[in-house]
Design brief:
Chain A is of the alpha+beta class. Chain A has helices at about 30-35, 40-90, 130-190, and strands at about 95-105, 105-110, 115-125, 125-130. In chain A, a hairpin with a 2-residue loop joins β3 and β4 (about 125-130). In chain B, α1 (about 20-60) packs antiparallel against α2. The longest helix of chain B is centred in the last third of the chain and has 44 residues, at about 80-125. The termini of chain B are close together. Classes of the chains: A alpha+beta (about 190), B alpha+beta (about 130).
């Protein structure tokens, strides 16, 4: 959209955030924006459209953030388990007794003999065997990546919130301006 | 939290909103949503902390050499009470530090919001509503 011009700073008119979300226009003086009362309806409507676009983006970003917020503890749990197995492997050679979830709400007992490798479920019906150190690295980097994208999600959400507020304030101001104008007109008629 | 729409028939001074004001309003709005997020996290951590405290007294009743099932991820590991105590202590320390961290963050956001509130109410008075 604004690819031809130089990148704008946040707060400057026409700024676009790193994920391509445009900044809402700010109204300094209402009269510059709405010349006469006939334009009020169309201006308010354009704000309404802007608002629903921002709200839509907010919704989809919220969904993405929720997904990540679910994923992060999962990765953390797996990482914790691998680290635990690793710590046990170095200390003693005896087997570990566990109660593990065989299925939802169904637990069974298992003995785990010390092992240098673990199996990681990679998704899409693929499981791979990894040396413990490599598994730790992989999970750590996955965890880091998930946390980073959650951070960008939150940044976007805050940026969206700011712009939604701008548009809401714009709407209120144009609306108030209209009410004020109408009142003045009435007084003139009297 | 919003800039009020004029109810018909009410006299209001014509307030000009400058770009700085708009940024303050946006900042407030942003901090407000950040605050609710952090407060949620804070409540969760508080619960976690309480559970850990409960378990700390509970586990003292178990003999040191007895085996307890300790959950890591989705699996319960059969560990000696002494080892579980050690692990729980570590967990408690981490949770307490995180809780403290959240508390500091919440407080600094509240301070920042109060500052913005003072400035914005001074300028806009009844035309703006910054309560949650």
């Amino acid at each position: 959209m604004a690819a031809s011009s130089a990148p704008k700073m946040p707060g400057q008119p026409g700024y676009v955030n790193p994920r391509g979300i445009p900044q809402a226009p700010f109204i300094e003086v209402v009269e510059d924006y709405v010349r006469n009362r006939d334009q009020v309806q169309s201006v308010l409507q354009s704000f309404q459209e802007m608002l629903s676009k921002y709200k839509y983006m907010e919704m989809s970003t919220l969904r993405r953030a929720a997904g990540l917020q679910e994923k992060i503890p999962d990765i953390q749990n797996t990482l914790d388990s691998v680290l635990f197995l690793d710590s046990k492997r170095n200390v003693d050679e005896s087997t570990l007794t566990t109660t593990y979830e065989l299925n939802d709400t169904l637990y069974a007992k298992a003995n785990i003999s010390p092992s240098d490798t673990v199996y990681l479920w990679l998704g899409a019906n693929v499981m791979l065997e990894y040396p413990i150190a490599e598994a730790t690295d992989l999970l750590t980097s996955k965890l880091h990546a998930a946390k980073e994208s959650l951070k960008t999600c939150q940044e976007d959400l805050e940026f969206l919130r700011e712009n939604i507020t701008t548009v809401e304030v714009n709407t209120a101001r144009v609306y108030n301006w209209d009410v004020q104008q109408r009142r003045e007109e009435k007084q003139l008629v009297r | 939290m919003s800039l009020q729409m004029l109810p018909p028939g009410q006299e209001t001074p014509d307030v000009q909103v400058s770009w700085e004001d708009q940024q303050r309003i946006n900042g407030f709005s942003k901090l407000n949503s950040r605050l609710s997020e952090l407060e949620d996290q804070y409540r969760q951590k508080q619960d976690e902390n309480e559970y850990l405290e409960d378990i700390a007294t509970e586990i003292e009743l178990v003999d040191e050499d007895e085996v307890v099932q300790y959950k890591i991820g989705n699996t319960f590991y059969w560990l000696k009470q002494s080892e579980v105590v050690e692990r729980l202590e570590k967990q408690t320390d981490i949770a307490a530090a995180e809780l403290n961290d959240l508390e500091i963050k919440v407080r600094s956001i509240k301070d920042e919001m109060d500052e913005l509130k003072t400035v914005l109410y001074k300028k806009f008075g009844n035309a703006i509503n910054l309560e949650r």
